[in-house]
DNA sequence: TTAAATTCCTACCAGTTTAGTAGGGATACT
DNA sequence: AGTATCCCTACTAAACTGGTAGGAATTTAA
């Protein structure tokens, strides 16, 4: 998603290129694509000259959006979302803590957009050039 | 650890009793004990009339202490602690985010002590009595 | 029209982690 | 001496994670 953000506005990008830049296999990346499409964070153009593009501006995609799609959840224990999994949920103090923790994680991740990453990236490489 | 905190000041507590109250098996709890002892969060008294006690006051044990001991770490990716696991660490933007996230999680968990849980517990049961 | 480029879908696999169970030994109180 | 209790090591089964593999579908372009 970071590579797609870097490439935003320049047409579709190949998985092959993303794989090279991020040092991952195309086969593996293919695995991540379907949920991202379903969530309408990216869209695909098939066939020759095809590839993937962000479906929204990098300013409009937060890390929380991405991680929720790829990891499924942010809570440290399932009982946060599904109290029924444990008979103790109603009065469980630990569960209150897990809920609090999920809120913190959520808030932190929602505070970063892809554009923030792109900006950080350019700051970083610029700094290295100066040294 | 919550049960030990509730029992703090009343001598050693049996794993059997903790197991009953938390609806866990003694065999499983035995598994959690060694790291907690090594970290000097609890101590054991062997033999008849033995059991486990907190090694410090509940006000002096944070959830971060406990979770670091039982889960080993708080980071979402190993590269946060051990940059060498990935050649991209030096310039990886994502890693910066994971580091930030670990800090947030750490801070949140360090903000709760066992005494806080005990207090919440009493508040909660008191409330239910009123209804 | 055909070949090449590329996404898309489903299945499989292997290592690690998690949540336990099990047996028996060591220690200390009464 | 006997019993309660912790202690240590090994084993196991299910789920999760990260990844490979094969081949079908679609689109562009020569």
What keyword list fits this structure?
homodimer; 131 residues; mainly alpha; Arc Repressor Mutant, subunit A; two-stranded antiparallel sheet; 6 helices; 53% helix; DNA-binding
Task: Explain what you see.
The structure is a homodimer. With about 130 residues, chain A is mainly alpha-helical. Chain A folds into 2 domains: about 60 residues, Arc Repressor Mutant, subunit A (Orthogonal Bundle); about 50 residues. Helix content of chain A is about 55%, strand content about 5%. Chain A contains 6 helices and 2 strands. Chain A has a two-stranded antiparallel ribbon with strand order 1-2. In chain A, a hairpin with a 5-residue loop joins strand 1 and strand 2. The model of chain A has no long low-confidence stretch (mean pLDDT about 90). Chains A and B meet through helix 5 and helix 6 of A and helix 5 and helix 6 of B. The first copy, chain A, binds a DNA duplex (30 and 30 nucleotides) through helix 3.
CATH fold descriptor of the largest domain in chain A:
Arc Repressor Mutant, subunit A
- Mean pLDDT of chain A comes to 88
Shape of chain A: elongated
Low-pLDDT sequence parts of chain A:
none
For the report, how would you describe the main beta sheet of chain A? 2 strands, antiparallel
**How many domains of chain A?**
2
CATH architecture of the largest domain in chain A: Orthogonal Bundle
**DSSP summary, beta strand count of chain A:** 2
What is the H/E order of chain A?
A: HHHEEHHH
End-to-end Cα distance of chain A, whole Å, is 29 Å
């Amino acid at each position: 998603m970071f590579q797609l953000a870097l490439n935003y506005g320049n047409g579709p990008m190949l998985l092959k290129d993303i794989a090279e830049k991020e040092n991952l296999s195309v086969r593996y990346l293919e695995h991540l694509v379907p949920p991202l499409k379903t969530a309408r964070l990216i869209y695909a153009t098939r066939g020759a000259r095809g590839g993937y593009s962000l479906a929204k501006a990098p300013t409009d995609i937060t890390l929380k959006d991405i991680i929720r799609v790829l990891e499924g959840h942010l809570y440290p224990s399932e009982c946060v979302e599904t109290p029924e999994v444990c008979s103790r949920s109603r009065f469980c103090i630990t569960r209150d803590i897990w809920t609090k923790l999920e809120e913190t994680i959520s808030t932190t991740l929602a505070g970063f957009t892809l554009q923030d990453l792109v900006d950080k990236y350019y700051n970083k490489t610029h700094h290295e050039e100066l040294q």
